[in-house]
From TrEMBL:
This is SRPBCC family protein. InterPro entries: Polyketide_cyclase/dehydratase, START-like_dom_sf. It comes from Oceanobacillus sojae. Pfam families: Polyketide_cyc2.
Length: 153
């Protein structure tokens, strides 16, 4: 099982961060390698991604299911690829630090199956923390930009 987590403090109230986070289509677009996504139901979606590691590239689909959404603090989800060779789960935890700041934590666990999974697990495991950090930083970027525009008005 590959695991990674990343936390960041944001100079925005929990309610503002939550209003962005609760719509998964906002953060789907921030996944590294994002191409497109399609909503299947309120809980299910299909994300098309393009992955590149060194000279190896691959297009793949991730099936994402929101399994719990508890306002204003938690989103839990499951992911799998189309061949069930990559299975995982994750969550976002959002907590208010003060009336003007929040902490966002993202946790992700992946299990890679089959021979390809066993071969690629060490490489993916070493890249996962940096990918997760990049993902969370991309999620909060539009929030920070919107806040700076609001402050300048």
């Amino acid at each position: 099982m590959l695991k990674a987590d990343y936390s960041v403090n944001i100079d925005l109230p929990q309610s503002e961060v939550w209003s962005y986070l609760e719509d998964w289509s906002h953060w789907a677009k921030q996944v590294p390698g994002y191409q497109t996504h399609k909503k299947v139901s309120t809980a299910d979606s299909i994300w098309e991604l393009h992955g590149k590691v060194g000279t190896i590239t691959k297009d793949f689909k991730l099936y994402v299911r929101i399994v719990e959404m508890t306002s204003p603090s938690t989103v839990q989800f499951r992911v799998r690829d189309s061949e069930n060779r990559c299975l995982g789960s994750g969550c976002f935890k959002l907590s208010g630090l003060t009336s003007r700041s929040s902490e966002l934590t993202c946790l992700l666990e992946l299990e890679l199956k089959g021979l390809t999974g066993k071969i690629s697990a060490p490489l993916i495991g070493s890249l996962l923390p940096a990918l997760l950090e990049k993902f969370v930083q991309r999620i909060i970027k539009p929030l920070k930009e919107a806040d700076s525009v609001a402050l300048s008005l």
